[in-house]
Design a protein that fits this description.
This protein is 23% helix and 24% strand. The radius of gyration is 20 Å and the shape is globular. Strands 7-8-9-10-11-18-19 form a seven-stranded mixed beta sheet, covered by helices on one side. Strands 1-2-3-4-5-6 form a six-stranded mixed beta sheet. A six-stranded parallel beta sheet has the order 14-13-15-12-16-17. It is of the alpha/beta class and 333 residues long. The model has no long low-confidence stretch (mean pLDDT 95). It has eight helices and 19 strands. The structure holds zinc ion (2 copies). One zinc ion binds next to loops.
């Protein structure tokens, strides 16, 4: 009897178990052997006995959880784990993010983690890899999600800043990836002025800089007189947008950089005056274009809006299933 395609991969609610490697991908509970796609907290948890990840992801994990029993993996280098050949490939999501190619029994399975297709000055671009089974996210897996041009969103931010020299623009941005990408995109647009940071963003911005991502002049926002911050951009985590902390700023224009800003209700909920639609995930068209390009025999959907993507696959004679993993939340992306 023919074995079922990919039946050596066992998706469980707490992560994807790769049986012949005796290893878990992005497990949500402490595990003996963990392969980690990227540093976001819903994928990279602390407490694993051994971790395989890119050196950037290991550095991010060390910043958040302390020293890791880490095995750094280079993009494109194949290693043997048990009876599986494992290769990490850039995912274009955040610094160090990887898709994981697993080869066993002549079958190729790619677990993409989270990914995007837009250029991002802070990380290596997504590389499509031919495979039999493509395991994909579907955070923005509905046709309504079409992310606008990145440069247009950054221009909106700069226009608001320049039109209001007596105010500041306070941008809520996820601490890992989004904050650094917003800064790098601003620099690419010629914005050379210092950018002020909420304390919660400092460590990861410092780490990106140490790892070679140029972010220009960054200053702590805390303890600076209001007048000095007028006419400048301030970045904070989304949770700080409306809290007491922001009251010390000069009449801030409240902005937020997130794919969810496509939904007006989300912007209203957070009192966001200037929604910036900037996502580190593929939008609907990029998800479906990626599946067309890779042309796998089967698509497995890890998390997000699974139904529409599974349906899209079925109508194109691609076998598809939703894995119902728990604990992955990309609310701030
Ligand atoms: Zn992520
Ligand atoms: Zn995720």
């Amino acid at each position: 009897m023919m074995a079922k395609l990919g039946d050596w991969i066992d998706p469980q609610p707490q992560g994807i178990y790769v049986k012949p490697a005796d290893a878990w991908i992005d497990p949500s509970v402490p595990s003996p052997r963990a392969l980690i796609t990227h540093g976001h907290a819903d994928h990279a948890r602390g407490g694993h006995a051994a971790v395989w990840a890119t050196s950037e992801t290991l550095a991010i994990m060390a910043t958040r959880y302390g020293p890791q029993a880490g095995h750094p993996v280079r993009y494109g280098e194949t290693m043997r784990l048990g009876e599986v050949d494992v290769t990490f490939v850039p995912a274009g999501h955040v610094l160090g993010s990887a898709q994981i190619l697993l080869e066993h029994r002549g079958e190729r399975v790619v677990v993409s983690g989270d990914y995007k297709r837009r250029p991002d000055p802070t990380c290596a671009p997504f590389e499509p890899v031919a495979c039999d089974v493509f395991v994909t996210e579907a955070t923005f897996g509905l046709p309504v999600f079409r992310h606008p041009d990145t440069g247009d969103e950054i221009d909106k931010l700069l226009a608001a800043l320049h039109a209001n020299p007596e105010r500041c623009v306070l941008v809520g941005a996820y601490a890992l990836g989004k904050a650094q990408r917003v800064i790098a995109e601003l620099r690419a647009r010629g914005h050379a002025a210092p950018i002020y940071l909420h304390g919660a963003l400092q460590r990861l911005c410092d780490l990106y800089t140490e790892l070679g991502v140029e972010l220009g002049a960054l200053l702590p926002a805390t303890g600076v007189p209001k007048a000095a911050i007028a006419g400048h951009i301030v970045l904070c985590p989304p949770s700080a947008l409306n809290d007491r902390w922001s009251r010390r700023l000069p009449d801030p224009i409240t902005a937020m950089a997130s794919g969810w800003m496509r939904i007006r209700q989300r912007a209203v909920q957070r009192n966001v005056e200037l929604p910036l639609i900037l996502s580190d995930h593929a939008d609907w068209h990029e998800l479906t274009d990626t599946l067309t390009e890779i042309a796998p025999q089967e698509v497995w959907v890890t998390h997000g809006r699974e139904e529409a993507l599974v349906h899209w696959c079925m109508t194109r004679q691609i076998k598809a299933r939703a894995l119902a993993l728990v604990g992955y939340e990309d609310e701030d992306d």
